[in-house]
Amino acid sequence: MRVSAYRLGHRFGDGHWLFRGLTADFLPGHVYALTGPSGSGKSTLLSLLAGWEAPLEGSVKRIGDGRVAWVFQNPHGVPNRTALDHVALPGLARGEEPARADADARLLLERFGLARVAGRPFSALSGGEAQRLMLARGIACEPALLLVDEPTAQLDLATAREVNDSLARISAEDTIVVVATHDERTRDACTDIVDLRKYQVAPSRDAGP
Ligand SMILES: Nc1ncnc2c1ncn2[C@@H]1O[C@H](COP(=O)(O)OP(=O)(O)OP(=O)(O)O)[C@@H](O)[C@H]1O
Q1: What was the ipTM of the complex prediction?
Q2: Which GO terms describe its molecular function (predicted)?
Q3: CATH of the domain at 159
């Protein structure tokens, strides 16, 4: 899949424009950081790219097929299921043999520094381990577009560093990864930056095109 945003603009109701005139291509194999101050519309842009929200101006074209997966700020898992179960499940759901799904899941856990905790229940993982597990599970879903919302927002500095290190390893050949973030280190771990400040509109231009 390839996602093209063309002259995108959005606001809610008669509120101010969050951004206007945003044109950008999102390509597989890249990890994009969406940056900008709180309230600038980073999560909104994720929804527009996913097609969950329709833009008020401009267009989002998704060329090609594929799944969209989200990784949210707060990791959600099944407390008594192991880390391995969480990452193997998407493969099983696609009809993979259990041995194959397990082997693929173990490789992903290794890539995200989680091999050591593969057999541990979700409830016993640290915050950083749980968040990295969500990234590993996101990739296990083999999405064409993986949207990640503020993956380090709830984490202390050391734990955030672990997650940022794993973000640098997240890029997968066939997946577009887009990460909404405030965290400079997350931004540094991404391959490309879309800074929403560039598309903010002065209030005097809010009246219309
Ligand atoms: N469904 C909605 N209806 C009305 N207003 C909304 C809706 N969703 C978001 N907003 C408003 O749009 C603005 C941008 O929100 P958004 O969550 O996209 O920003 P953000 O850059 O992700 O912020 P943060 O960094 O604080 O998470 C905010 O003022 C928010 O209150």
Answers
A1: 0.96
A2: ATP binding; ATP hydrolysis activity
A3: 3.40.50.300
